[in-house]
Amino acid sequence: MKLTVWTYEGPPHVGAMRVATAMKGLHYVLHAPQGDTYADLLFTMIERRNHRPPVSYTTFEGRDLGTDTASIFRNTCRNAYDRYKPQAMIVGASCTAELIQDDPGGLAEAMDIPVPVVALELPSYQRKENFGSDETFYQIVRALAQPMERTQEITANLIGPLALGFRHRDDIEEVKGLLYEMGIGVNVVAPFDATPEDIAKLGQAHFNVLMYPEHAETAARHLERTCGQPYTKTVPIGVGATHEFVAEVAQICGVEPKKDLSRLRQPWWSKSVDSTYLTGKRVFLFGDATHVKTAARIARDEMGFEVVGLGCYNREFARDIRKLAKDYGVEALITDDYLEVEKAIEDLAPEMILGTQMERHIGKRLGIPCAVISAPVHVQDFPARYSPQMGWEGANVIFDTWIHPLVMGLEEHLLHMFREDFEFHDEAGASHHGGHAPKPIAEVPAPEPVATQPEAPAETGSDVMVWLADAERELKKIPFFVRGKAKRNTEKFAAERGVSEISIDTLYEAKAHFAR
Amino acid sequence: MNQPTNISGATCRDAPILKERGQREVFCGLTGIIWLHRKMQDAFFLVVGSRTCAHLLQSAAGVMIFAEPRFGTAVLEEGDLAGMADAHEELDREVDRLLSRRPDIKQLFLVGSCPSEVIKLDLHRAAERLTVKHAPHVRVLNYSGSGIETTFTQGEDACLASMVPVLPETDERELLLVGALPDVVEDQAVDLLNKMGIGPIRVLPAHRSAEAPGVGPNTVYACLQPFLGDTSAELDRRGARMIQAPFPFGEEGTTLWLRAIADEFGVDDETFARVTDAPRARARTAIANAAKALQGKTIFFMPDSQLEIPLARFLTRECGMEAIEIGQPYIHKGLVGPDMDLIPAGPTISEGQDVDKQLDRVRAARPDLTVCGLGLANPLEAEGLTTKWAIELVFTPVHFYEQAGDLAGLFSRPVRRRELLKLEAASASKETREVAR
């Protein structure tokens, strides 16, 4: 048993729903009690889909247990087929039905449904949502895809994009564009908008673009084995990664790595002088492994940030993320407990967080700016406007998204110059952060009388630091958005030297020490 | 003037009920935790369930999940399924850890889920054991919010029913108001009754466990919500007596509800009029304003919260709407009977659900407004039907006089929006332009 409030991932049958809802002409019969239909609203509300997810629930009740839950399943299956006439079906159990052991696969097989029925085994008490989607897509591909003759022109399958995927809709367009520029066509995009008939045609593509390893790596490996299709290992998020992706595709297909960079603005934006202030901003990254991996590279190599910590919630990729962390000289955080993430962020006191919806809230609580780079996300991250993460346009989008929460160069400069002005007092906050509109101040506060006893000293590790009154006053003169860093650096500096009382001199010695 | 308007001929109470079984598109009782934990300020709700339960609460609670909520899920893992003895040890350990982290907690509810019930994890025994262990500081109770036993608001019923047997005994003649309402509404109700000289008034659930009401043979109680069947039965078992009335939605519902209590306490007409005339007039004005868009419109209720019958009564009688179907997950005539008496026979009254068949009926009837859950609302809107998502009716203050206008407003807003938006016209004119070019 484990006490949980927030979960980064749902149960595995939600992963299966994401595959089913992404596809057309497929129906999912889920053996589940009343209430499990809550997951429908993730699709109709967060993704704002205009149709019900193609899922029929058996909705068994307490009084059905031990008697006829199997026949309820059969009826639901039959009704679903008669009503929706899908090209194929998937059947499985949710966590409760897993316990009553009705074997949906076996029951459906005995029913003579005239279309392929794929049985799903999703261990709800061991695995989670991403496993569910990866496994479901793999089972569908395994059941329906066959080796085929290749298309005459070079084509690729784009595999991995799902319902409820973070920016999947627009990433597809961007990747299609990258391939089109090299003269490569798209055979099938799956599961997104694919039918079971499309899945049966996967074999005729020359190779697969594995867009999201979390959701389709098992299927990609399977297709490599059975259909001899290589798949791309680079996920084209970020300028460098997109260049590498194009090179990888060109090499797989033996074509010219042609690129149209005319709309790529990110590199110049990042070079322009206003961005100088981004140099060395300390960022913390958390999310799914793929987005964290790509974001780390963008943060360091394309934005000039300093990555001070990173991690992911999907254990399937723990090894990759540990290796990545080593490359960046930081500690990897592999956890699905948001309290651990919050603790790590508190300890590291970064100037920016790149994470999920949850980190956005942690950031809000700690007063640290945050941009969202990965699922789970809320409704605002399924935008109406075009906003991919992949490819050249994705790089433009990412630049804007990441710097928007930060105080930009000129603004930071002005805040420094006028920091004694009453309008820039501590409580005013940054002008564009909602909910922090400057409060009217009744009177300009007189310099605070300094207490003879220092206030509750901050604890850092085992050493207890005491800030002397004049140093404390000096610290308060530092603008609020860099004060946390200054305080932390000074205490670290003092601790390393065995100093337990911090004076103005300590403060400025530390500043000199950490000057970049 | 304060007596129920008599309806000649058959009413909904006598109408046959269409009972259906099939796929249900409803929440399970666990969702009740989301509003109960706000109301009971020293209680913690610990669901014993699966990752699905945790995910449900997170999806249903939305942003509330980030506000240090007093609820959580002890997620069962593979090991817990194998050995039941270990599961109890694990539960004890998680509870110990939780209570040491949150010393402000005085009541702990172990909330059963589908998985915990299917594996027959005995939470009742666990609650007794943990009560002994953590007495007198914390009392541990248990109830089921599982989908196989409860639908949506029934979770509140199960929770309150679990509290009744351990309420202190009293011989006082007290009025007990039952049901968790937003504080502002509860205060209005108490204030109106106090002004008529009725008291003392107690509420279940109370804000804090120390304020728990007593109950006994002289207790009379009135339900604030129509879904409290089990709680009502438990109160009856303690010797308390229910005051039957329509539920306090709209001007008429509130008046009849207050009148029933006033009659029980011997309040004369003059006093009643003095206290209620002004707010009644306010409520009527507010409803008239908000309900303009609803006059003559048809409405279809999908089952959700058991509020459907009282709300249909309000909308048909005070807002001029016509009900096509009133679906409820369960119909407890002992509670909603007085409301059913006020609705003339005509609309289909349905209990339970086969969602596909019910949607066929919605599509055939093409109502002006369909009240349904969030899993159905956008798909129906995309089919050109106007919807009011039902969950809001449980979270928003909608009871009593001062909220009557807001209640009508919740239904008229989607209708007005439909009339305001000219999206089709905009795209049509664009097409015209393109053709012209």
UniProtKB/TrEMBL annotation, chain A:
Transmembrane segments: none annotated. [4Fe-4S] cluster binds at residue 36. The active site is at residue 274. Its EC number is 1.3.7.7. Keywords: 4Fe-4S, ATP-binding, Bacteriochlorophyll biosynthesis, Chlorophyll biosynthesis, Iron, Iron-sulfur, Metal-binding, Nucleotide-binding, Oxidoreductase, Photosynthesis. Substrate binds at residues 409-410. It catalyses: chlorophyllide a + oxidized 2[4Fe-4S]-[ferredoxin] + 2 ADP + 2 phosphate = protochlorophyllide a + reduced 2[4Fe-4S]-[ferredoxin] + 2 ATP + 2 H2O. Residues 467-511 form the Light-independent protochlorophyllide reductase subunit B-like C-terminal domain. Residues 12-406 form the Nitrogenase/oxidoreductase component domain. Component of the dark-operative protochlorophyllide reductase (DPOR) that uses Mg-ATP and reduced ferredoxin to reduce ring D of protochlorophyllide (Pchlide) to form chlorophyllide a (Chlide). This reaction is light-independent. The NB-protein (BchN-BchB) is the catalytic component of the complex. Belongs to the ChlB/BchB/BchZ family. Protochlorophyllide reductase is composed of three subunits; BchL, BchN and BchB. Forms a heterotetramer of two BchB and two BchN subunits. This is Light-independent protochlorophyllide reductase subunit B. It comes from [Roseibacterium] beibuensis.
Automatic annotation (TrEMBL), chain B:
Keywords: 4Fe-4S, ATP-binding, Bacteriochlorophyll biosynthesis, Chlorophyll biosynthesis, Iron, Iron-sulfur, Metal-binding, Nucleotide-binding, Oxidoreductase, Photosynthesis. Pfam families: Oxidored_nitro (PF00148). Binds 1 [4Fe-4S] cluster per heterodimer. The cluster is bound at the heterodimer interface by residues from both subunits. [4Fe-4S] cluster binds at residues 28, 53, 114. Pathway: Porphyrin-containing compound metabolism; bacteriochlorophyll biosynthesis (light-independent). Its EC number is 1.3.7.7. InterPro entries: LIPOR_BchN/ChlN, Nase/OxRdtase_comp1, Protochl_reductN. Coiled coil: none annotated. It is an enzyme of class 1 (oxidoreductase). Residues 28-383 form the Nitrogenase/oxidoreductase component domain. It catalyses: chlorophyllide a + oxidized 2[4Fe-4S]-[ferredoxin] + 2 ADP + 2 phosphate = protochlorophyllide a + reduced 2[4Fe-4S]-[ferredoxin] + 2 ATP + 2 H2O. Protochlorophyllide reductase is composed of three subunits; BchL, BchN and BchB. Forms a heterotetramer of two BchB and two BchN subunits. This is Light-independent protochlorophyllide reductase subunit N.
